[in-house]
Design a protein that fits this description.
This protein has 413 residues and is of the alpha+beta class. The chain is 34% helix and 21% strand. It contains 13 helices and 18 strands. The strands form five sheets. It has a five-stranded mixed beta sheet with strand order 4-3-5-6-7, with helices on one face. Strands 12-18-17-16-15 form a five-stranded antiparallel beta sheet. Strand 15 (349-353) and strand 16 (360-367) form a beta hairpin. Helix 3 (74-81) packs across helix 5 (108-118), helix 4 crosses helix 10 and helix 7 packs across helix 11 (298-309).
Length: 413
Amino acid sequence: MTGAGRADGIVVTPSHNPPRDGGFKYNPPHGGPADTDATGWIADRANEYLRAKLSGVQRVPLHEAREKVQSFDFMADYVAALPKVINIEAIRKAGIRIGADPLGGASVDYWQAIADAHQLDLTVVNPLVDATWRFMTLDGDGKIRMDCSSPHAMASLIKAKDDYDISTGNDADADRHGIVTPDGGLMNPNHFLAVAIDYLFGGNRPQWPEQTAIGKTLVSSGMINRVAEGLGRTLLEVPVGFEWFVPGLIDGSIGFGGEESAGASFLCHDGSTWSTDKDGLILALLAAEIQAVTGQSPSQQYAELTEKFGDPAYARIDAPANREAKAKLKQLSASSITATEVAGEPITAILTEAPGNGAAIGGLKVETENAWFAARPSGTEDVYKIYAESFKGAEHLAQVQQDAQKVVDAALS
């Protein structure tokens, strides 16, 4: 314990990765994800123990450990508190039919408890928990992966999309969300983030102060930038990583924090803190709230946003890079880029620090009037990741991707 009611947290999960890649997530007492300084220290210390064949690791018998801890019903408290952050009454009154697929993960008992406690028309589509994961459809590469953003992993839920008004999926530790609608199928994570922001800040959280900001990672869709501008709201654009939203979610200066990989959280109705880490369940329930309050599905809402702000094409690809190249990419400065245009448009900005907080990107982002790309080194593979988006369509996006690789390779040569 580190103070009244606060403690470090450990999550044991494969998250949205294959089961064999399970591991530990560490959350410090503020409740959000740990930064790289903390996780780096933990990894180094763990490897020291492994090299020493666990010499120095202190152990106690299980019965002694149990005597020193106190049980706490986290689920009951969470379920009871949901009306503080979600308009549960609207969902119930509208009779929204929800199909929730835990994908064999930690949310399996939560969804049934939510249905029972709040009298929602909610079906746990797949309540099976099985170490063989035989209920999962394989991902695009043939692996088992509880990725609720993947149409392959979510194939069973997509097939049954007409059975429910809103279908949702969560990854193994339920910090990510996938939204399926009868008219649109599985929504792109960026699309739902834009819809959620437009809904929350567009009058459906009237107690939030006008200065409450919208938080996004700099590789999330530019649609969010246009929505924020249209709402007249401050946009806080930060590097990749949900930990950058933690201070704002604690003090209420950020109303919504979201990242491109389908992770987000937002404040309670009264502007107080709900969570400082991603919460896939409230985003799934928000989809049902949007349907209940507006009478439209989130995918229909997104179609209206595209009519107003344009219809962007977004993708991420990988490009080969050895360890030295990745290290150099991480340290690039704006002066390293000699190109003056990308995909036929003049470059308007070259960023190596996030505009929202001045923190290093660990790569770079290049912007034009109608497109952008960002390049970051992979932490696990000999590649760098290119995120790109164009408001001029898929063909222009492909050109942006080609030019992005040329720009980055020239800077690294």
